[in-house]
Amino acid sequence: MQLLDRLLALMPVTGRLDVRCHFGSPWRIDQPESNEWEMPYHVLLRGEAVVEIDADGQGEAALHMRAGDIVLFPAGSAHTLHDGSGKTPRTMRKQHRGALTVATNGKTREGADVLCGRFVLPAVPRQLMRDHLPERLLVSSVSAGDEQARDAAFASSRLARVIELMREEAFELRPGSEAVVNQLSGALFALTLRYASESGDAPRGLLALAQRQRLQPALAAMFDEPGEPWTLPKLAELCHMSRATFARHFDEAIGRSPSDVLTEIRMAIAGRKLVQTKMSIAEIGEAVGYQSEAAFQRIFKRQVGITPAKWRAQSSRSVD
User: What are the tens digits of pLDDT across the range 141-188?
Assistant: First the structure.
């Protein structure tokens, strides 16, 4: 198994498809900041769109979306999508169809068709996932080219087939449709990360780390045997590298040391055990490599911001 497989097995992501926006120009979507458990996303089915992190366009450079693109916001940042005209958007009207809202503005020509939703993280410390993904991630499921070739490529892509299934289930509202959409959202998230990690310019962080095939034996060991007393020489040996080369690969990919990544993996596993099991805090600490309960408590609080006991109580309430 590769890094993304192990990461998603530890943090199975579900999701919600909230709104389908069917707009003619001029149009605008304002998305407020999300909570720590959610990553908003938008799939552009038709047309073009401009994406900005802040409403005034004074933050990072604007991104341009075309049909077949998906943008997600791992940090949950407030953001805006619009048609780029700079004109006052037409008034939006909303209709509710079960769990899905359909938003229109009375015009469809020269506009866009957008699916808006959110990926939902499980009750696991979020640092490993959210802190090592970019603030925003734009993925194109097809290569650049003329519109006809691009449309044909999108229609045949796996990402497109998942999106089409989500749209069909959301609109047909058959028995179990909501559960199907939630499960398909997890597949959409996995495919989005796969496309991004396989691109030639994967951003520094988890996606770049996933590209380093030579590091996978060490990463697999961290996930599979977090309780082992892993040292830099032992991990480097698994990858048939010198210590210096091994550490350099980590720094180039994610900007962190192997021991930092190991600690975050251990805390993610510990956080899940705190919610899903009745093991004592000392037992969980030992299971992820800490013989001293005090050491585990100290490192968990430093990484997560609260004690293991508070995490267990807080997270258990959030999933009830």
Answer: 555 554 555 554 554 577 778 888 887 887 777 888 878 887 888 888
The residue behind tokens 């149009």 is 27
Is the same domain home to 97 and 233? no
Looking at 149, 170, 202, the residue that finishes a domain is 202
Tens digit of each residue's pLDDT (9 = 90 or more) over 285-312: 999 999 999 999 999 999 999 999 999 9
Structural element, H or E, at residue 17 = strand 14-23
Spell out the alpha helix ranges (H) of the chain.
Answer: 3-10, 127-130, 147-155, 158-172, 177-198, 206-211, 216-224, 232-238, 243-254, 258-276, 281-287, 293-304, 308-319
- What gap in Å lies between CA 304 and CA 262, rounded to an integer? 14
Q: Are residues 16 and 108 in the same domain?
A: yes
Tokens of 129: 């996932």
Strand, helix or coil for residue 250? helix
> DSSP per residue over 200-236, as a string?
TTPPTTHHHHHH-GGGHHHHHHHHH-TTS---HHHHH
**204 contacts 196 by C-beta, under 8 angstroms:** no
Provide CB contacts within 8 A for 209, sequence distance 6+.
Answer: 3, 132, 215, 219, 250, 253, 254, 261
State how far Cα 233 lies from the chain centre: 32
- What's the CA gap between 308 and 300, in Å, rounded? 7
